[in-house]
């Protein structure tokens, strides 16, 4: 009995540092954000008056927030789908061992080791309207030039493409590991029965990697909602707020417009959106699993 109680206290003692760090760096900021979302704040971010839900009401009525929300949802949707589809395709192409394959795997997964700042500056040069790689390619093909970072549509496409490229390394490595864990015997049996490549993909590969695809989709989606650095360096939220993703809008409200109350309200709305979308993903997965049983 005494040894059991001693083990109980020892477990809490070992967990204490982790709990203290979580309270300090997650619990306190969350509670402070909830508190500030109900306050009118001064330029330094100090609360000066309780306003209840007014920050939320003004936020939901603002055209800039509605534009930011719509752009964020479009961005997250396309970034998540493109990342998973491209990473899965590359993993399929490189899952088998042959001469020189390690070089391709290293090149594809190397995007994971590039910092957001370095990657954004690299793409800033590529999108340069005068000397960028894309502009030179269009000029060589005698096509009309594109203002990649100043046109409302193309700037959003540029941000989506840049973020997809950044996320590709992580998604590729996880999916490649999942594909390589499928037993070869399954493919041998499929070949003996004359199954086509498409049938093998549908009946063996996709079902076996479904849990991993789900994990990658959840992580990629949450990361997409938190995108900031590439927006700040490439477009600064422009033109006309067409790349003003919600995290960047929160930064603008808090540190440029000095409206911490509104920024806190926007942070809580973003948190609820991420929670709802993630719960929908888990609900959809459980529903699919229930049907397959």
From TrEMBL:
<dbReference type="Pfam" id="PF00528">
    <property type="entry name" value="BPD_transp_1"/>
</dbReference>
<dbReference type="GO" id="GO:0005886">
    <property type="term" value="C:plasma membrane"/>
</dbReference>
<keyword id="KW-1003">Cell membrane</keyword>
<dbReference type="InterPro" id="IPR000515">
    <property type="entry name" value="MetI-like"/>
</dbReference>
<feature type="transmembrane region" description="Helical">
    <location>
        <begin position="263"/>
        <end position="284"/>
    </location>
</feature>
<dbReference type="InterPro" id="IPR051393">
    <property type="entry name" value="ABC_transporter_permease"/>
</dbReference>
<feature type="transmembrane region" description="Helical">
    <location>
        <begin position="103"/>
        <end position="126"/>
    </location>
</feature>
<feature type="domain" description="ABC transmembrane type-1">
    <location>
        <begin position="69"/>
        <end position="281"/>
    </location>
</feature>
<dbReference type="GO" id="GO:0055085">
    <property type="term" value="P:transmembrane transport"/>
</dbReference>
<dbReference type="InterPro" id="IPR035906">
    <property type="entry name" value="MetI-like_sf"/>
</dbReference>
<keyword id="KW-0813">Transport</keyword>
<keyword id="KW-1133">Transmembrane helix</keyword>
<keyword id="KW-0472">Membrane</keyword>
<comment type="similarity">
    <text>Belongs to the binding-protein-dependent transport system permease family.</text>
</comment>
<feature type="transmembrane region" description="Helical">
    <location>
        <begin position="69"/>
        <end position="91"/>
    </location>
</feature>
<feature type="transmembrane region" description="Helical">
    <location>
        <begin position="153"/>
        <end position="175"/>
    </location>
</feature>
<protein>
    <submittedName>
        <fullName>Sugar ABC transporter permease</fullName>
    </submittedName>
</protein>
<feature type="transmembrane region" description="Helical">
    <location>
        <begin position="9"/>
        <end position="31"/>
    </location>
</feature>
<feature type="transmembrane region" description="Helical">
    <location>
        <begin position="212"/>
        <end position="231"/>
    </location>
</feature>
<keyword id="KW-0812">Transmembrane</keyword>
